[in-house]
Design goal:
The complex is a heterodimer of chains A (698) and B (590).
Chain A (H helix, E strand, L loop, with lengths): L6 E7 L3 E8 L2 E9 L5 H15 L7 E8 L1 H7 L6 E6 L5 H4 L24 E4 L2 E2 L5 E3 L3 H13 L4 E5 L8 H13 L4 E4 H4 L5 H32 L6 E3 L5 E3 H6 L7 H16 L5 E6 L4 E7 L2 E2 L1 E2 L2 E3 L11 E3 L3 E2 L1 E4 L5 E5 L5 E7 L18 H7 L17 H16 L3 H26 L9 E4 L3 H12 L3 E4 L6 H7 L4 E11 L5 H21 L8 E10 L6 E5 L6 H17 L9 E11 L19 E9 L4 E9 L8 E3 L2 E4 L4 E4 L3 E5 L5 E5 L6
Parallel strand pairs in A: 1-4, 4-11, 5-6, 5-9, 9-10, 13-23, 23-24, 30-32
Antiparallel strand pairs in A: 1-2, 2-3, 7-8, 11-12, 13-14, 14-15, 14-20, 16-19, 17-18, 21-22, 24-35, 25-28, 26-27, 26-28, 29-30, 31-34, 32-33, 34-35
Chain B lengths: L1 H13 L2 H25 L3 H4 L4 E7 L4 E4 L5 H17 L10 E4 L11 E10 L2 E11 L25 E5 L2 E2 L1 H10 L3 H28 L6 H20 L4 E12 L2 E12 L2 E5 L15 H16 L7 H4 L2 E4 L18 H4 L2 H9 L16 E7 L8 E7 L26 H7 L2 E8 L15 E7 L5 E6 L20 E4 L11 E4 L5 E4 L14 H9 L5 H6 L5 E3 L13 E3 L1 H11 L1
Classes of the chains: A alpha+beta (698), B alpha+beta (590).
Chain lengths: 698, 590
């Protein structure tokens, strides 16, 4: 079937691969994958797009829209490839970004390390000025000093400066005046104000966010300009839209101002892919689980929307531990990352118990079974020994695995020290890593007031289909959903994202004291702001809608919870309070203090355009005749050990096909494990769903 | 006794190691849930911003199985002992579903009357199967606001014996009323207690779910297994040490110009360690005394951090370490000794134990740190209740240089407590911090430099009198260097206008326009500073961590500044190392 024009293209630049998918109004036309070109990332984008179009007899002018996500921003921060940046801050507070919270995030480890600030101390300059916590001016801004420093910075070759003053989230005037002053003498200097980038209380987090934004802005601008040009050269008429980490897309020019909102936009696409397949499967609530070679990621989908958080850390320098990274406050899909992947190393700890990771053998030297010099046994080695991975057909047979070497390593390193046999040891590794991931998922879900046992598990990544069933069972999930084309899932997700932007304002007040007028005024201002940004992304006003939320807490508490609220109305306060009570109980149980007032700290509006109607199914019908490839021995403790297990070719399984476990379903990138006492079904869109405890007893 | 030993060996062989591992991991993730709930629902900045807390889970007999990964050692380890007292005061048959217990008795728990422990028994099928508990530093508990000037514990605030805080019928209203009228911050103090109740409930809920999933009627067997394995792991680590007796002694500021001596003798024999503090000063008439519980807490923390940081902290890993201090000494004070500032003595114990163990550990241990967490309690009385405030502020000096790395700058050790943001403190009170910045040259010179301290200046808005109690130490006794490293700088607390030193560890009345300055101590240096990499010294100078003078005098590195004398921005390019002069300086010393 020939593809029509009106194509939409999703492109994701990852650390290793650049992925692409092309959709027309009927479904997926083609997918592509190429190595990321780190020097000029847009080059790989252009070449994989041109090649994939050509392979399907299509032209650039057939492409109506491109949606693009990238890990570029994250990588620029991790690799410290940003601009030469300085910090102007309130005199006496130049070390806020180095002192952080003065905290040892790991109690017993005497060797821990703290994150390096993005700006070295010699480029952190104290400016004479001071605003107090009520917004009043204690010391007026020394404009002359600002200008002198700006000139010195230019002379020193500094390209960007973050202006971060105390309490600027309450009164932004000093920062605004400082910008004027700098512009007057140093027009070439790029400037970011903390009152614009992240107008929220807590100086360490606000300064860190502002710095990160301005630090990467130049890199991102250059890249986006290059991308825009290359797309034009291929013949694509419209500028690409940019995927944001909150799960929305926006125009290039908006993305340029807030590059930190593009952090983690690749994984955001994965979450949106989960939303999209979930919708087709009639599952609005999901736990999305992605497992690759070194880490696993998890996020919760609620009512067809990934949960979003407003604080996270980039560049965790010490064992992925919270506290070892740079804090960034920006709307981002609420995702946790665990050091658990196929390459994660298994060992016996000093307690004589199996532990997995967080270190990984990666792809070099890789697991023992790769035969590239890896000596420590890994999760993948266990999966080979258990028969879940076929040594001969791994990556479509491109890379034979050494099963004997894997078994020998597990025997020596795990089985013999524990006094158990090799299969039990391999199962111990497999089950332990599954349980670790399930634990992380459980904590993540419980903290957000969700019951993990009620959420179907949506799996992606090379190891997601392999370990997902075990994780799902450890969580007590009712069902598992494995999409087709999991390898390019994020690019599919991009195409299902609505244009959307989050705007935020800190305004602290007791709920009882907020006037109806100021509620209206605040939301109106935020909606105008969001609407304006949407307009710049080409969304007609009639198609816009605004969702409002506020962050509330009991007066006296220090941490807020985000509470959805309706549009302003005379009963708004009662409704907000009821919504808060509901969220509080969901998170913490029925222990709310009595007789304590409630306050609002932060007001948020998410402004969105319409959702595109993206169909994510494959269009070519499979040849179902010969899906059964053969049998091999695979280990299932429920069956008391190794059993002859049928192996199917995923690409030949037709919609409607149903199978009872135990079974293995293989595709090039992965193997889906159908455990005993479960049953799987192939859906119209070629997703496979597993229902646990539904297998045929016969 | 023999029989017990045998049965535990049988259990060791009989229990599926994979299952034990799975349950053990799950218990730890539950404790993180418990701690997250506690921080998210707490009211006081002490708990919600600074994490002066600990959470733990116990088996049915009250033996600690695990602790949350955040929190601070003094609370965690004291909880382990505290729960023994609680479980023996209220045996299972006297408890019912819905009961919650509370106490702040210093001798039974964390050694300070502000530290409140809340413990919740968990019932499954009407049988008590476990306990969840937490210990939090209360923003106020009455008394003299942590002043060490009190001479008996009775002056330090409201003492709560082990009591039922709640039953299934609801809260103990009499007790709540008593607490409410005795403290300066009734909403915060009680709000935090409610948060502790809620967090225990979150932990209990998850534990019951786990027991359902694994169909366990009791967690005692698995708990015993986890403890036995932890004990064996720590014993194994101790066995690697050379047997012998290791000693160290130090002085700290004490109270009112009367320094205290802390002395330790560590005896390593086979797979056990005894730590004895004989030779330490007798207990003080002032509130710097440490209860044995707290002495044990920081001592066992030190042993584990030095030998086996990866071994979980539980009742099992305490067993190989036997800790004693003479009764009536400052490290084992007797009721009713005053104890309000006990952490200003107790926090020195890890560095002291490290100093003793240094010869026994070939891979080395850090030099002494600022150690005692600096805490100041600020109080203002307004004309209305709304204008009054009581605020506890924490801050960290530098930690000691390490065998392969510099010490950490402004990072608490051994405490796990965090600092609160300036913006939060200023929003809650009329306090204004006019400076909060690193203190150059405060890190002890060494091949691996001690971490830097900080300087903090505070005044107030509003034209009213106010008070502060500066609970600080290392003003008279800086952190020593190790193996040829130099000491970190000493701390100070002064009036900015007069330049005079101000009294510490007691309530100080301040005039409305008084402006005070704290200089936090730096960590000690590790090994000879003349061996420090020249490029590292250069980098320290460029970034103002050390002065040009210190580079020359302390490190033997001659560096010149070649840029404009009035320049604010000074790039690395404007400095130059004088290699010849450096060779001469460093050579001369040899």
């Amino acid at each position: 079937m020939a593809a029509s024009g009106n194509l939409r293209v999703g492109i994701d630049i990852g650390g290793t691969f650049t992925d692409l998918s092309i959709l027309d109004s009927d479904g997926i036309v083609g997918v592509g994958k190429t190595l990321t070109t780190h020097g000029a990332p847009a080059a790989a984008v252009a070449s994989v797009l041109a090649d994939t179009l050509k392979a399907h007899g299509l032209k650039g002018s057939d492409v109506q829209g491109v949606v693009h996500g990238t890990t570029l921003v994250t990588n620029a921060l991790i690799e410290r490839r940003g601009a030469k940046t300085a910090l102007m801050t309130t005199d006496g507070f130049r070390d806020v970004i180095e002192m952080g919270r003065e905290h040892r995030y790991e109690l017993y480890d005497l060797n821990l390390e703290l994150p390096q600030p993005l700006v070295p101390r010699h480029l952190r300059i104290g400016i004479r000025e001071r605003v107090l916590s009520d917004g009043s001016v204690d010391t007026p801004l020394d404009v002359q000093q600002v200008q002198e420093v700006a000139l010195e910075l230019v002379e020193a070759g500094v390209e960007a400066v973050a202006v971060c003053f105390l309490h600027s989230h309450i009164n932004e005037q000093h920062e605004a005046k400082a910008r004027e002053a700098i512009r007057a003498v140093a027009p070439g200097l790029r400037i970011a104000l903390s009152s614009e980038i992240n107008p929220e209380i807590r100086e360490y987090e606000r300064f860190s966010t502002t710095l990160a934004n301005v630090y990467v802005q130049g890199v991102v601008e250059d890249y986006l300009e290059d991308l825009r040009q290359r797309m034009k050269d291929i013949g694509v008429q419209n500028d690409p839209l940019i995927m944001l980490s909150n799960g929305g897309v926006t125009a290039i020019d908006v993305a340029r101002s807030y590059p930190i909102r593009m952090l983690e936009s690749g994984p955001a696409g994965g979450a949106l892919g989960a939303v999209s397949f979930g919708k087709t499967a009639g599952q609005p609530n999901l736990m999305a689980f992605d497992m690759g070679g070194t880490t696993a990621k998890l996020c919760i989908i609620e009512k067809n929307r990934p949960l979003v958080t407003h604080t996270f850390e980039v560049n965790r320098v010490y064992r992925l531990r919270a506290g070892s990274g740079l804090p960034v406050r920006a709307p981002v899909i609420d995702m946790i990352e665990i050091g658990a992947g196929g390459g994660s190393v298994a060992r016996i700890n000093s307690l004589g118990l199996i532990t997995i990771g967080p270190d990984s053998a990666g792809s070099e030297p890789g697991p023992v079974s790769y035969g590239r010099g890896g000596k420590q046994c890994t999760v993948t080695d266990a999966d080979v020994v258990l028969g879940y991975l076929d040594p001969k057909s791994f990556l479509g047979g491109a890379m034979p695995l050494d099963a004997d070497a894997a078994a020998a390593a597990i025997d020596a390193q795990i089985a013999r020290p524990l006094g158990i046999d090799i299969a039990e040891a391999a199962w111990g590794i497999h089950a332990t890593v599954n349980e670790n991931m399930a634990n992380a998922a459980r904590v993540h879900a419980m903290e957000r007031g969700e019951d993990p046992a009620r959420l179907p598990l949506f799996v992606s990544g090379g190891n997601g289909p392999l370990h997902g069933p075990g994780v799902a069972q450890a969580l007590g999930s009712p069902q598992l959903l494995a999409p087709p084309a999991a390898g390019v899932l994020s690019t599919l997700g991009f195409l299902s994202a609505a244009t959307s932007i989050d705007v935020v304002r800190s305004s602290h007040a007791a709920l009882a004291d907020v006037g109806d007028d100021s509620i209206c005024a605040l939301f109106e201002k935020l909606e105008d702001e969001g609407g304006q940004l949407l307009k710049e992304s080409g969304v007609p006003e009639a198609d816009m809608h605004h969702e409002r939320s506020v962050e509330m807490r009991f007066i006296g508490q220090g941490n807020e919870i985000e509470v959805p609220v309706p549009a302003p109305s005379p009963s708004w306060k009662q409704e907000a309070l009821a919504s808060f009570a509901l969220e509080y109980e969901r998170k913490f149980g029925d222990v709310a203090p009595q007789g304590v007032g409630v306050e609002i700290l932060t007001w948020r509006v998410r402004s969105s355009g319409p959702e595109p109607d993206a169909k994510l199914r494959f269009r070519d019908a499979p040849d179902a005749a010969d899906a059964l490839k053969g049998h091999r021995m695979a280990y299932f403790p429920q069956e008391s050990g190794y059993v002859q297990t049928p192996v199917y070719d995923r690409h030949r399984l037709a919609p409607g096909h149903s199978l009872a476990g135990p079974a293995l379903i293989e595709e090039r990138e992965s193997t889906l494990v159908i455990p005993p006492a479960s049953r799987c079904t192939v859906a119209q869109d070629r997703s496979i769903s597993i229902d646990f405890n539904q297998g045929s007893a016969s | 006794m023999m029989q017990q030993q045998q049965s535990s060996v049988v259990a060791l062989e009989g229990t599926d190691p994979v299952l034990v591992g799975l349950v053990s991991n799950r218990l730890h993730s539950m404790l993180d849930e418990q701690q997250a709930a506690l921080v998210n629902t707490a009211f006081s900045p002490v708990v919600r911003e600074s994490y002066d807390l600990a959470c733990a889970v116990f088996d049915s007999r009250g033996s600690m199985i695990g602790q949350s990964s955040g929190g601070t050692p003094g609370h965690i380890n004291a909880l382990a002992t505290g729960m023994r007292h609680i479980a023996s005061r209220y045996p299972a048959q006297s408890m019912a579903e819905g009961d919650v217990l509370i106490t702040n008795d210093p001798w039974m728990t964390a050694g300070q009357i502000n530290d409140i422990t809340v413990a919740t028994p968990v019932f499954r099928n009407h049988v008590l199967v476990a306990w969840f508990a937490s210990c939090c530093h209360s923003p106020d508990i009455g008394g003299r606001i942590l002043s060490a000037a009190a001479t008996e514990v009775y002056e330090e605030g409201l003492r709560i014996p082990i009591l039922k805080l709640r039953t299934a019928e609801g809260p103990n209203e009499v007790l709540e009323e008593i607490i409410r009228v005795n403290v300066r911050t009734p909403d915060e103090t009680l709000g935090d207690i409610y948060a502790q109740v809620a967090a225990n409930q979150v932990g209990a809920r998850s534990l019951l779910r786990l027991m359902d999933e694994y169909q366990l009627d009791s967690i005692d067997d698995v708990a015993a297994e986890i403890m036995d394995r932890s004990e064996a792991a720590l014993r194994n680590a101790i066995e690697q040490l050379t047997d012998g007796t290791y000693t160290a002694a130090m002085e700290c500021d004490g109270f009112g110009g009367q320094p205290l001596t802390l002395q330790v003798t560590v005896t390593v024999r086979g797979n056990g360690i005894t730590v004895d503090y004989a030779g330490s000063s007798p207990q003080s008439p002032f509130g710097v005394n440490v209860v044995l519980n707290y002495t044990r807490a920081y001592t066992s923390f030190a042993i584990k951090a030095a030998l086996a940081p990866e071994v979980p902290h539980n009742a099992g890993s305490f067993r190989p370490v036997h800790i004693t201090a003479p009764e009536g000494s400052v490290l084992n004070c007797l009721d009713p000794a005053p104890v309000a500032s006990r952490h200003l003595v107790g926090h020195f114990l890890p560095s002291l134990v490290f100093e003793a163990l240094r010869p026994a550990l070939p891979e080395g241990l850090p030099a002494a740190s600022a150690d005692a967490l600096w805490m100041s309690v600020w109080r203002g009385n307004g004309t209305t209740k709304d204008e009054s405030f009581t605020l506890t502020v924490f801050g960290a000096g530098g930690s000691g240089g390490r065998p392969t790395k510099d010490g950490l700058t402004t990072t608490g050790f051994p405490t796990g407590v965090r600092a609160a943001p300036t913006e939060v403190l200023e929003t809650l009170t009329p306090l204004v911090q006019t400076q909060r910045e690193l203190l150059p040259d405060s890190g002890g010179p060494g091949k691996f430099r001690g971490g830097l301290g900080q300087q903090l200046q505070v005044r107030r808005r509003g034209g009213q009198a106010w008070t502060v109690n500066a609970n600080i130490d290392r003003v008279d006794h800086p952190a020593a260097g190790a193996l040829g490293g130099m000491p970190g700088s000493a701390g100070s607390f002064t009036d900015i206008q007069t330049g005079e030193d101000l009294p510490r560890k007691s309530l100080l009345r301040l005039a409305p326009d008084t402006h005070v300055r704290f200089r936090f101590p730096g960590g000690g240096g590790y090994q000879d500073p003349f061996e420090r990499d020249i490029e590292d010294v250069f980098n320290d100078v460029v970034n103002g961590y050390i002065s040009l003078e210190a580079a020359r005098g302390m490190y033997g590195v001659a560096i010149e500044y070649l840029g404009r004398p009035d320049a604010t921005v000074r790039l690395p390019e404007s400095f130059r190392i004088d290699r010849n002069a450096t060779r001469t300086l460093r050579g001369e010393r040899q």
